[in-house]
């Protein structure tokens, strides 16, 4: 019996073959099936295995990945994914566990989730952690919903309707706040690239629900005023929310809890080196202080003696935010990464990431402007303003050199911004090559660079035509 006959009812399928072709004929299709979707036959080409392999191998060689080169996307922390974590995640007892298995049949998986919760609590200095949110942005949204429900339960839901967000924040911060039903209020940066405390003081009121902030921020600057910021927000009755996108700069050195934060989300697909492409899969666990523990999404993994179980009994929980237990394969990889590196290893990761950033910044400062001249942390934002070249053109030049360009035109408070984050696994040779290429880009003539990239499968898009003649569906 063929694959098709095994998969479909025999009365609907007949398979024919000859020396040159084979096709499937579907018969007795129900009357309600639309005519436009009916198919009389399916012609399958006869192709040798090695031709198929060659075709898909060539396609794979056109892709750029963390396995083939550096991914210096500032703010995104595109780290190399270690293969030991992939191997652990592929173990049959993990990869094939059924989500509806009873707790007694998945004690090993529950133990790993419990240990990951405990490790994240220690890393962040939060009192409780939920692993459920399946992405960083959903972790943000979960945090916002926790804040919203806290004030609803405490009778301030209609009053505290504003969330303060610095002008250097990630775009997901105002988006998550708006989706949660809050009005967003922008707080400007001061001349040092940190939060303007005077502006913050003016914006704080009885309407303030929270301040969302990354630290270090998207300029790669650690805001040394954070303890004062926490005091101001708490005095106004609001919460301090830590966007964990830049956690790679503080691993083992400090923690949101030490800085006075009340709630944080983790990007496991950033900080803890799990796969981070195609919009997912991801994981965005949320950690909270004691007064917010009862509002976390459920279930939470608990331990009773030597047995692990799922607890859904939180009194004020916002409910489930993902099916089953979140993206377990990603949680498993993050657990392996933390266990493999340990406390000393996590500290070293931060040190190498910061060293790489400042080494590259020193090289680029020869020709590029680096706003807010301070020591950088995990990333550096340089500006091509005044060089005669647009950030966009420099990015296209890098593509022709076989290099992935950095994030451009972000954060919005820096003109012609190129936001670069090299992470801790990038070698000195790669850093030198990248700096050399970015410096050479400034020497290319305007007519030549405007036609780049020339060596990629897809050439430069006509931006004006794309804006005027939008194709919004296939």
Characterise this structure:
The chain has 474 residues and is α/β, with parallel strands linked by helices. The protein has three domains: 3-46, no CATH class; 83-341, Aspartate Aminotransferase, domain 2 (3-Layer(aba) Sandwich); 352-467, Alpha-Beta Complex (Aspartate Aminotransferase, domain 1). It is built from 16 helices and 15 strands. Helix 10 links the parallel strand 8 (239-244) and strand 9 (263-266). The longest helix is centred in the C-terminal third of the chain and has 37 residues, at 328-364. The protein is globular and about 60 Å long. The two termini are 37 Å apart. 40% of the residues are buried. Mean pLDDT is 91; it is low at 1-13.
Features:
Aspartate Aminotransferase, domain 2, 16 helices, alpha/beta
Topology:
Blueprint: H1 3-7, E1 13-17, E2 22-26, E3 41-44, H2 49-61, H3 83-89, H4 92-95, H5 107-124, E4 128-130, H6 136-153, E5 162-166, H7 172-179, E6 183-187, H8 197-203, E7 208-213, H9 226-235, E8 239-244, H10 256-259, E9 263-266, H11 268-271, E10 286-288, E11 300-304, E12 307-311, H12 328-364, E13 380-383, H13 391-400, E14 407-408, E15 417-420, H14 428-441, H15 446-449, H16 463-468
Parallel strand pairs: 5-6, 5-7, 7-8, 8-9
Antiparallel strand pairs: 1-2, 2-3, 4-10, 9-10, 11-12, 13-15, 14-15
């Amino acid at each position: 019996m063929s694959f098709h006959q095994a998969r479909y009812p025999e009365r609907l399928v007949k398979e024919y073959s000859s020396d040159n072709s084979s096709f499937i004929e579907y018969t007795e299709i129900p009357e309600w099936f639309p005519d436009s979707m009916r198919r009389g036959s399916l012609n399958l080409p006869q192709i040798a295995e090695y031709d198929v392999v060659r075709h898909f191998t060539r396609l794979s060689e056109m892709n750029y990945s963390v396995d083939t080169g550096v991914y210096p996307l500032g703010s995104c922390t595109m780290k190399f994914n270690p293969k030991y974590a992939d191997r652990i995640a592929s173990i049959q007892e993990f990869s094939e566990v059924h989500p509806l298995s009873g707790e007694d049949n998945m004690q090993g998986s529950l133990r790993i989730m419990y240990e990951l919760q405990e490790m994240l609590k220690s890393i962040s200095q939060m009192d409780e952690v939920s692993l459920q949110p399946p992405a960083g942005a959903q972790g943000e949204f979960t945090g916002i919903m926790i804040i919203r429900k806290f004030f609803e339960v405490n009778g301030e839901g209609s009053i505290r309707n504003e969330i303060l967000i610095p002008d250097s924040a990630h775009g997901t911060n105002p988006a998550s706040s708006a989706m949660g039903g809050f009005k967003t209020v922008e707080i400007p940066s001061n001349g040092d690239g940190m939060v303007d405390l005077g502006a913050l003081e003016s914006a704080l009121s009885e309407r303030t629900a929270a301040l969302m902030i990354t630290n270090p921020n998207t300029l790669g600057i650690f805001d040394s005023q954070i303890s004062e910021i926490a005091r101001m927000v708490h005095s106004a009755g609001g919460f301090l929310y830590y966007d964990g996108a830049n956690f790679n700069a503080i691993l083992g050195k400090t923690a949101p809890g030490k800085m006075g934060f009340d709630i944080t989300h983790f990007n496991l697909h950033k900080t803890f080196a799990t796969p981070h492409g195609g919009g997912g899969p991801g994981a965005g666990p949320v950690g909270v202080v004691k007064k917010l523990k009862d509002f976390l999404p459920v279930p939470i993994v608990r331990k009773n003696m030597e047995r692990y179980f799922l607890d859904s009994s939180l009194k004020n929980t916002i409910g489930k935010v993902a099916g089953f237990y979140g993206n377990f394969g990603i949680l498993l990889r993050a657990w392996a990464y933390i266990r493999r590196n340990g406390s000393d290893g996590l500290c070293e990761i931060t040190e190498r990431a910061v060293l790489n950033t400042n080494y590259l910044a020193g090289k680029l400062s020869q020709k590029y402007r680096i706003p807010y001249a301070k020591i950088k942390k995990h990333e550096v934002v340089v500006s091509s303003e005044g060089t005669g070249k647009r950030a966009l053109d420099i990015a296209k030049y890098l593509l022709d050199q076989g290099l992935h360009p950095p994030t451009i035109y972000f954060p919005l408070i820096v003109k012609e911004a190129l936001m670069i984050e090299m992470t801790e696994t990038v070698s000195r040779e790669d850093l030198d090559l990248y700096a050399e290429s970015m410096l050479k880009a400034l020497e290319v003539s305007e007519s030549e660079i405007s036609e780049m990239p020339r060596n990629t499968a897809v050439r430069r898009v006509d931006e004006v035509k794309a804006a005027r003649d939008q194709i919004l569906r296939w």
